[in-house]
Amino acid sequence: MAKEITIYDIANQLQISPATVSRALNNHPAINEKTKVLVNAKAEELGYRSNKFASNLRKQSTSTIGVIVPRLNSYIMSTVLAGMEKIANEEGFNLIISQSLESQKKEIANAQTMFNSRVDGLLVSVAFDTDSFEHFQPFLKKKIPLIFFDRILENNNCPSIVIDNTKAGYEATNHLIQQGRSNILHITGNLQRNVYADRLKGYQQALLENEIPFQKEFLWETALNLEAGKEVAQRIKAMPNRPDALFIASDLCAVACISALKEMGIDVPNDISVVGFNNDPVAQVIAPKLTTIHYPAKEMGEIAVKSMINHLKGTMNLDKTNAITLRSELIVRESSRIIEHSA
Amino acid sequence: MAKEITIYDIANQLQISPATVSRALNNHPAINEKTKVLVNAKAEELGYRSNKFASNLRKQSTSTIGVIVPRLNSYIMSTVLAGMEKIANEEGFNLIISQSLESQKKEIANAQTMFNSRVDGLLVSVAFDTDSFEHFQPFLKKKIPLIFFDRILENNNCPSIVIDNTKAGYEATNHLIQQGRSNILHITGNLQRNVYADRLKGYQQALLENEIPFQKEFLWETALNLEAGKEVAQRIKAMPNRPDALFIASDLCAVACISALKEMGIDVPNDISVVGFNNDPVAQVIAPKLTTIHYPAKEMGEIAVKSMINHLKGTMNLDKTNAITLRSELIVRESSRIIEHSA
DNA sequence: CTGAAAGCGCTTACAG
DNA sequence: CTGAAAGCGCTTACAG
Question: Which stretches make up the HTH lacI-type domain (chains A, B) (predicted)?
Answer without folding.
Answer: 5-59
